[in-house]
Amino acid sequence: MTKKTMIAAMTAVFLLPSFAPANGLNLNGLGSRAQGMGGAFVGIANDFSAVFWNPAGAAGFRVESFGFSLADVVPRATLGLDLVQVPENPPFEAKTATAHYLNFLAGYYKPVSSNVVLGVGIGTPSSQGMMWNGSDLSVLTPGATYDFSSRLYVFSFSPMVAVKLSEWLSIGAAINVHIGTFSLKMPAGTSSFPISIDPVDLGLYEENMTGWGFGATIGLLVKPAEALGIGLTVRTPSTITFDGSARMSNMLLFELPGDSDLRRKITSPLSIAAGLSFRASDRLLLSADVQWTQWSNLDVVRTTFMDPVWAQLTRIEMRDVRVLDWKDATQIRFGAEFALNSSTAVRAGYTYDPAPGPESTLDILLPTFANNAFAVGLGKTSGGLQLDFCLEYQAGRERGMTYFYRGFELDLTGTLGMRAFVPSVSASYKF
Per CATH, the architecture of 3-430 is what? Predict the structure, then answer.
């Protein structure tokens, strides 16, 4: 091989992750009550999670209130590979290590007049990642064992206002200030230099980045009848500019810079959600949502490396741009809440969440799946205090893999499966 081949292997690693809030590990929203109803909450939005689901719902709050929820995403991915070029190794299966990705939402609301409510929300709308046991995948890196892990968090600070225009119409809006963090570890792959006949190991690739951006959430809630609610929520695109550094452990051995600062701009897409709620009886509340997300805007990911050597290497192979080829997707959510008595309610929900990305761009560190999510919940009220619990199970549809990582001299095919458990708890109080 030549140095040009080495560049191809390196730059494929640099652009591996999608860095977008993929649906594979995201909650179907924030707040245990809403989660327990499958995320079908746009046409309801009458608790502290309104800042996330539909800010217009807060216009109906008549007293000061505060709430907090905490959820734990526990994913489990399974990778099955057929090593076509290594016949002495039979097909094998690897599983991710147990990892926890915490999500939270806190919301505070205060009526300032008979028809205006101010509020603020702080939460994590995106939290995802993967952690594989390097020893399970050592067949891909003969002679060495490397970490395979990723972790992405997006924290949002969202001041908001909601206005009740009439008895049947409310509007609301929130400004979302996002702060994102990302970390990645994986093998850099192998390549050859003109002075070496055999491929050399480029070592462990590591990347750490932070960034910020802002967007907005706009909501509308219509109550044409006491038993009926119609909601609309629009989330604008939000661009987060990530800055950080990357390093490759063996680069210095070949008299090349071992690290580089880098910058990557990622735009989360426009999404539009419509929701309908219907109180079928004094005890039974039904809801349904549909949400369209413009994932096609996240078509490519561009990276700028500040070190001139790294920048030159990535430009030569045109590897500073990665094509994702994502498509727009429509999510469907259904929920139900049944009051056992005046203080206790049980809930159930279902969500279908299609994968935005094709199998041709699937990777094992930030994968996307078509999810069928099932949730059950319980709520308990005592005076101004409300406690809610939920358990959600996300069943990802198994996907075929047409490649693994460039830079490994193996012709790989296989399947990638995903499932996740998401327990959550919320507490809120009306003063």
Answer: Beta Barrel (2.40)
